[in-house]
Amino acid sequence: MDVITFGESMVLFNPDAKGPLRYIHTFSKALAGAESNVAIALARLEHNVGWFSKLGDDEFGRYIECFIRGEGVDISRVIKDVTKSTGLLFKERFAHVNPNVYYYRKNSAASYLSTDDIDYEYIKSAKILHVTGITPALSESAKETVIKVVDYAKENNVIVSFDPNIRLKLWSIEEAKPVILELCRKADILFPGIDEAEMLLGISEPKEIIEAFHEMGPKMVVLKLGKEGCRVSDKEEEYFVNGYTVKTMEDSVGAGDGFAAGFLSGLLRDKSLKECGEYANGVGAMATLVKGDVEGLPTYDQLLTFIDKKEYVDR
């Protein structure tokens, strides 16, 4: 495997119209989950990827399995729990703003993920392990599992990639901060957003943020700056990489996951640090062009065309 990741995926219900959910009567069903978004993005970029979680033994769980497997991601280590349900979430849309998100995931099957559920030989088979700060927010057992898997990966020379992905609807910043910072210290590649960095470190200047995170341990820090682009550093080199212009953004959810996948794809292809940043910005921007978390994620050829690395031929 090039990359293995794990965490909760849910069934997303997207409203077919804008406005408060109490006035919405029809929804479109889709997939949601930061880690599966990254896995699908990497699979579309032609990498061998594995994803696992715990799912309810229900129709929503079967839908998630079929969807992710259909994208070319290995799901052989997924566990079914006959006593728990698969998590759900609903989006609420208003004009020209990011959607509101409502979770129905408390006591879901994935929240019961434990250290006994892990195939450690499978983890060892990866070049990169990608984890996020969402999974440890689900439960105490999920938090222990993330930390143990990360430690095992590091002991077995697997590169650890970490996206803090702070979700204050799942836990408070007081609960999140010590756990997220512990995982930052263990990471080899770190993907903080500028707002997350301010919450964690209390500073807002990008260069200072990167220096502070490097001092914790990560070899690479990839600071997400939204539409402006990103700042990438590997301690020896540091670059600001301009973002790509998106005239009409349909949905920003999933863009950060696409961003991380783009960077990891460049790394796996031995691209330069700056090129990895361009890949990250490109996938992140393309993810916003289509409604849904994964629907806008590009193939490798589409990415190269979008970032002007390949000429577009329309017919």
Gist of the model:
This protein is α/β, with parallel strands linked by helices and 315 residues long. Helix content is 37%, strand content 20%.
Describe the structure.
- 37% of the residues lie in helices and 20% in strands.
- It is built from 11 helices and 14 strands.
- It has helices at residues 34-44, 59-70, 120-124, 135-138, 140-155, 173-186, 194-201, 206-216, 255-268, 273-287, 300-306, and strands spanning 3-6, 10-15, 27-32, 49-52, 54-56, 79-81, 88-92, 100-104, 128-132, 159-163, 189-190, 220-224, 229-233, 238-242.
- The strands form 3 sheets. Strands 4-1-9-10-11-12-13-14 form an 8-stranded mixed sheet, with helices on both faces. It has a 4-stranded mixed sheet with strand order 3-2-7-8.
- Helix 2 links the parallel strand 5 and strand 6.
- Helix 9 (255-268) runs antiparallel to helix 10.
- The longest helix is centred in the middle third of the chain and has 16 residues, at 140-155.
- It is globular.
- 45% of the residues are buried.
